[in-house]
Amino acid sequence: MLDGMKDLLGLRDLSAEQIEKILETAKAMKFVLSQKNKKTAHLLGKSVVTLFYENSTRTRLSFELASKYLGGFSSGVSVGVSSVAKGETLIDTVRTIDAMGTDAIVIRHSMSGAAHLAAKNARASVINAGDGMNEHPTQALLDMFTMKEKKGGIKGLKVAIVGDIAHSRVARSNIWGLTKLGAKVSLGGPLTLIPPEIECMGVKVYGSVHEAIIDADVVMGLRIQTERQKSGLFPTIGEYSRFFGIDEKRLSLARPDALLLHPGPVNRGVELSSAVVRCPQSLIEEQVTNGVAVRMAVLYLFTKRGEEE
Amino acid sequence: MRILIKNGRVIDPKNGIDDVLDIYIDNKIIEEVGKDLDYSGADIEEIDASGKIVAPGLVDMHCHLRDPGQEYKEDIESGTKSAAMGGFTSVACMPNTEPVIDNVAVVEYIKSKSESVGSVNVFPIGAISKGLKGEELAPIGELKFAGVVAVSDDGNPVTSPSFMRNALIYAKNFDTPVISHCEVKSLSDGCMNEGYVSTILGLRGISRAAEEIMVSRDIILAKTTEASVHIAHVSTRGSVELVRRAKADGAQVTCETCPHYFTLTEEAVMGYNTNAKMNPPLRTDDDVKAIIEGLKDGTIDAIATDHAPHHFDEKDCEFDRAKNGIVGFETALSLGITYLVKTGALTMSGLIDKMSYSPSRILGIGKGSLCEKTAADIVIIDENSEWTVDVNSFYSKSKNSPFDGFKLCGKVVYTIVGGRVVVRDGILM
Fold first, then answer.
1. Statement: the pTM of the whole predicted model exceeds 0.80
2. From the CA of A28, how many Å to the nearest CA of chain B?
3. pLDDT higher at B56 or A4
4. In this complex, do A196 and B195 lie within 8 Å of one another by their Cβ atoms?
5. Phi first, then psi: what are they for B420, rounded to 5°?
6. 289-348 in chain B: CB under 8 A from chain A
7. Is the ipTM of this structure higher than 0.85?
């Protein structure tokens, strides 16, 4: 089904069928996760290296646990104490890791296209764990997995993505994946944080958050990535939260059974109020569990190239 | 050394010639252009140019030779070989060398090195400001006296309008053209054109406003000071329209574009192709159309290469980190023939004008024609010869071209510089 694809660089490159296949496999993996003994042989004898140039708690840990639950080896390169700190280039670092017989390299990098560059320079499967503002495919897959699990399917869902779309790789991956599976995606946020011509990706852009949220089945908040902001995109955190944050009142504009998602970590009181983070509609912790299942599926499917389906 | 070029289609835009003629060269000089010239002698090299185009050697008014300082990318020897292979007989090199061309010593170095190892004529362009910093004027008079043909801060455009105004006025004293790379840096914090492609690739976009605001500024400064300004590498529809209107208003404004701006769009960046990264960035189909219209109606005076060699490692990296620019000498003429002449946008004479006489006129260097009693700088072109671009065959030290693998029309057969055959039958001598 994945036609021997070596790398998972983004959902832009996947068909609806390929995305469904990953989500289906993740369902079986979630069953494994719910067991007392979480050990399978899907990755037996295989090694996974995480190479993170940016900070991460959940993504990195979930990839490492996913690998271990499936019987594989996993190691992480800490960029700060590795040869990267001595000025080694990305290509040389990737080649070095590749030369150690690695089966999968999971990479996060602050620059868009870094995973593509890694993939060109490695025999190993490269799994993009976030490249700049481009894509974060496993996050979108776990978001879609969560929606599918709760809503039964993706087709026809109205999904509102709210916040800093321009700097968000999570938004881009979700837009590719959701539109391919037939969801209707609406975007809301300050217009300085909506990238140009994004309507061409098949989404609807609203200037106000409440318009984007009305009648939504799923509301997804995005982290305001203050470290990537240029000044002048919005005036203050206070104004941001007042006009573009998601609180109970705004969430009530969505359908009563709407789901609230957020990729984490949350800036409480900024893009989400503390109250909505803990409300029954919030699936933020469920997303974390599903993240492990999805990454188990991805590691399994992308490292079994050339083996029997 | 005497050369007789027989039966070529001689195209000389300056003199309005487009006819089958012969050219006789004696002692570095074009002695005679005419029908059925009859010269004989054992020491005469006779070149049969029948079926070929014989034109003034091409003039590139905007290139980077990287010498002194970055010889690992290019040097005067390799750069001028590359230029000769592309049919250029004169090139004007930008001052962002190390050290910068902001003093007489560097001008002297470039002149003397070109004379000893250069394959074509090299005309240095001096800096507008010391160190390209936009703070103090470079000694424009001394630079001119030493041999620079224009001044420009190129990729470090002058930020301050008052500094630019003074530079335009001061340069008038010395009849020195001022070349402006138009880019408002505070609007250009990106690495490709801002639009759909930058959105889906997650790359920071550069708004066309970054270019157009400074084009407007420099046009207004030129008008209000009655000075002249030359706008470098125009890439957007808006810039073309601004220059068109300025010319209609009588402003002393000229401009150039580059082959990549009439052949490629931002789509070339897909896949994070760093060889499609340049400044200004590749734009859209609509801009390409406007550039071609501008070339047709004379708004755009010249085609320059902006030949910008970079080492392989400087392009084989993250897109954000990759250097701006592409090599251009060895593809420029063929891109012009393929995308402008074969499509009917320009006549062959029109293309040659924009690549020889017109840039020479802007720089005031007296090149780009086949006038009798002038230096014999000549190119002979087989306009129908088809070839496939192979960057590994380039004479440039650098291979950073987005045109690798392109099938193009038109090949340089001979390049003659000051009566010396530098390229013969497509082979560098």
1. yes
2. 32
3. B56
4. yes
5. -105, 130
6. 313, 316-321
7. yes
